[in-house]
From TrEMBL:
It comes from Limosilactobacillus coleohominis 101-4-CHN. The active site is at T14, T14 (o-isoaspartyl threonine intermediate), T85. Residues 203-319 form the Asparaginase/glutaminase C-terminal domain. This is asparaginase. Residues 5-184 form the L-asparaginase N-terminal domain. Substrate binds at S54, T85, D86.
Length: 333
């Protein structure tokens, strides 16, 4: 049997970090990573495309990563992207929108401990990512600590523990068991034209509501060039309306053409603005529900939608559309 051909795109992160006087910083190449993982039953090519801690990965780097995935995808059976963990969920979510209908498996991974440390989690995570890239349906995934999840559902929930990521509001698609990589949710992939579209609007904001939040800050953002806002509201999507009327401020912004997405500060389960008065007020003012999306998916979806020139109505429609498994659409808001 011929070996599967896989590509490693390395971008830095803790996985590739070495100790320096300034603190841990990326230093190992993709080839170094592969050497330390040891033998794998695949033919693997490597390209070092970035060498950054992921806290330095920003929209400019998203574009580079998306373009490289797009450029090389047909030369390989699957692609692994090694990436720092801090912003990996944002990058994986953005790739979901920039590379719609991706036609190969693309698997992001990283580690909590550098690969050159004896008991690092990196070798296991790399092996998992390659196994996933060799066997899953096309899609954007994140592989970490024996689990493979949809990239657009992954959230970093722990700062140091090996089980740093969780798949939020959607089960992991595959898990390591004694039988190997067990596919739990076979993705229903249908061949369609893969589109690379990296146009995004980065003039957006993601804010968390807290008791005492001054809605004038929303106006200040709009006056300073903010084109769209995701608000992590309370519980099912509730927002203050007495004394400090957040809902009314949202209405004013929306009438100025600035979409406002209502997400929840609860990590799990969906927002539903219809249930309480504090949600309905915001809904009446035109707030758009993020439903069960992660904040990482909501903010990247908003950037991408605005980058396509969508207005408030289009963004509303876009957020009521499931692009690649990032949201569960049901009758609820
Ligand atoms: N574990 C990690 O990879 C954290 C690191 N600061 C990064 O995101 O690049």
């Amino acid at each position: 049997m011929t070996q599967q051909k896989l590509l490693l795109l390395s971008t830095g992160g803790t996985i590739a970090s070495v100790i320096s006087e300034e603190g841990l910083a990326p230093g190992e190449s993709g080839e170094d990573l592969l050497k330390m993982v040891g033998n794998l039953p695949y033919q693997i090519d490597v390209k070092d495309i970035l060498n950054l801690d992921s806290s330095n990965i920003q929209p400019e780097e998203w574009k580079t990563i998306a373009e490289d995935i797009y450029k090389y995808r047909h030369d390989y059976d699957g692609i692994v992207v090694s990436h720092g963990t801090d912003t990996m969920a944002y990058t994986a979510s953005m790739m979901t929108f920039m590379l719609q209908n991706i036609d190969v498996p693309v698997v992001f991974t990283g580690s909590q401990v550098p690969i050159n440390v004896l008991l690092s989690d990196a070798p296991d995570n790399m092996r998992l990512a390659f196994a996933a890239a060799a066997s899953l349906q096309p899609g954007i995934y994140l592989a970490f600590d024996s689990k493979v999840m949809r990239g657009c559902r992954a959230v970093k929930v722990r700062t140091t523990a090996f089980n740093a990521f969780e798949s939020v509001n959607f089960p992991p698609v595959a898990e390591v068991t004694s039988d190997g990589l067990e596919i739990k949710i076979p993705e229903q992939w249908q061949p369609r034209q893969c589109i690379l579209n990296t146009a995004i609007d980065t003039n957006v904001s993601l804010i968390k509501l807290f008791p005492g939040f001054d809605p004038a800050l929303l106006h200040a953002m709009a006056e300073n060039g903010c084109h769209g806002i995701v608000i992590e509201a309370y519980g099912l999507g509730g927002m203050t309306f007495i004394r400090r009327n957040v809902a009314a401020a949202i209405g004013e912004l929306i009438r100025k053409g600035i979409p406002v997405i209502a997400a929840s500060q609860c990590l799990y389960e969906r927002s539903d603005l219809t249930k309480y008065e504090v949600g309905r007020q915001a809904l009446l003012e035109g707030a758009i529900s993020a439903r069960d999306m992660t904040s990482e998916s909501a903010i990247t979806k908003l950037m991408w939608g605005l980058g396509q020139g969508m207005d408030v109505k289009d963004i509303d429609k876009f957020f009521n559309t499931n692009v690649a498994g990032e949201v569960t659409i049901d009758e609820l808001n």
